[in-house]
Amino acid sequence: MEITAYQIHNVLKVYSRQLCRGKSIECQKGLGLISSIDQINISSEGRRQAVIEKVATNIIDRITSYGPQSDVEHEIVNQLENEFGKEESTEFVYNQIDVNNNKITSKLSVEGPDFILSRLEELTKEAVDKRMEKAR
C-alpha cells in the first residue's frame, strides 16, 4: 500500500487544526468563557450510555450464543419469558400433515425474532442501568 505525500499532508493539517482548537478551548476555559461543568455532565452521561450499550451487547451475545449463565442473564430471560408467556395473541397456531398422514401442531410467533431481540436488548439495557445505579 502506497501512502502519498498529499495524504500525509492532509492528515497533518487536520491534526494541527485539532491541536489549535484544543488550545483555544483551554484558553477560553481559563478566562471563564466556557463552563466546564456542562461539558463534564454531558460527556459523563455519554460515556455512561456507551458503557451500557457495550455491556448490554456482550450480555445479549452471551445469552443468544450460550444461553443465560449468570443471575442477571437468568433474570432478563425470565422477564422476557413472562412477557411473552402472558400474551397468547403473539402466536400463530397451525397444523400440518407429515409424510405418514400424522397431524403436527406447530406455533409461530407473529412478531418474529426481530421483535423479541429488540425487547431482549431493552430489558438488558434496563438491567445494566439498574446495576450501575446500585454500584454508585
Main-sheet strand order equals 1-2
Radius of gyration: 26 Å
The tally of beta strands, per DSSP, is 2
Could you spell the SSE succession in H and E letters?
A: HHHEEH
* Tally of individual domains: 2
Q: pLDDT under 50 segments (min length 5)?
A: none
Features:
136 residues, mainly alpha, 2 domains, 4 helices, 2 strands, 71% helix, elongated
Can you describe this structure?
Strand 1 and strand 2 (about 105-110) form a beta hairpin. This protein has a two-stranded antiparallel ribbon. With about 140 residues, the chain is mostly helical. It folds into two domains: about 1-35; about 35-135, no CATH class. The protein has four helices and two strands; from the N terminus they run H-H-H-E-E-H.
SSE topology sketch:
Layout (H helix, E strand, L loop, with lengths): L4 H27 L4 H31 L4 H16 L4 E7 L5 E7 L3 H23 L1
Antiparallel strand pairs: 1-2
Helix pairs in contact: 2-4, 3-4
Please outline what is shown here.
This protein has 136 residues and is mainly alpha-helical. It is built from four helices and two strands, in the order H-H-H-E-E-H.
